[in-house]
Protein: enoyl-CoA hydratase
Amino acid sequence: MSYENLLLEMHGKVALITLNRPQALNALSPALTAELSALLDALETDDGVAAVVLTGSEKAFAAGADIKAMKDWGYMDVYKSDFITATWERLASFRKPSIAAVAGYALGGGCELAMMCDFIIAADSARFGQPEITIGTIPGAGGTQRLTRFIGKSKAMDMVLTGRLMDAQEAERCGLVSRLVPADRLIEEALAAATKIAQMSAPIAMMAKESVNRAFETPLAEGIRFERRLFHATFATEDRREGMAAFVEKRKPDFKDR
Ligand code: HXC
Structure:
């Protein structure tokens, strides 16, 4: 399959997806998000893919939803097409590990897309923001929800109500970003992290991801019970047996994804 707005490169079992609308700072047009959704469908069922890195350009991860595309839409246009659920949320429901590698602007829908990944590695040039209020709307792809859960009410309110941008250092301090790296090492670091994950058992990594994500949706006791069920389920896998045997035998595990 070929894509107009995305680039895809395989690095071993890691799929590197690059948002590629440089003329619009990777503004997330309906065509781009539809392509991303279709690509994720394909990667999810491909056993040759163990993890995904999503990135943009040096100047912009993505400067938001495409304002030029949206500007003349009315309520019925967005309601009837359920803008944005069908395509954008595909990344949030992607079952394999995903890393956002962010340089430059990650604004509005760009910040929301990055937050749908499992974690964010940021270049020191990264700037995050939910500036929708400055163009007369509010975040619509999780910006008021995920951001608040990730960085707390006060900072989320500050960003959503003033539309101010947060630099990479602040984003790392408040936990939006897991690692901060020099811009020229961003892709290398993100691929190294994804490659490390790809060396684990794929189904076990999926269970770990599913369990962490559950923390955002359940009370603690329920989340702990969910974790316990999945933890017990790992004992039904060959890879759990292999992992522990390899430790005891002082060798590298040979995971078979079973
Ligand atoms: C459409 C965009 C765009 C966007 C930039 N461009 N952001 N086009 N949608 N979100 C286009 C510009 O129109 C311009 O094209 C080109 O990209 C370069 O942008 P400039 O503004 O000239 O660059 P610069 O001066 O460096 O400023 C960079 C910037 C600014 C600070 C990132 O572009 C900006 O503020 N962009 C909008 C950010 C924003 O409000 N995002 C939230 C969108 S709403 P031309 O052809 O004109 O030169 C949203 C809602 C999501 O995301 C809800 C869920 C769907």
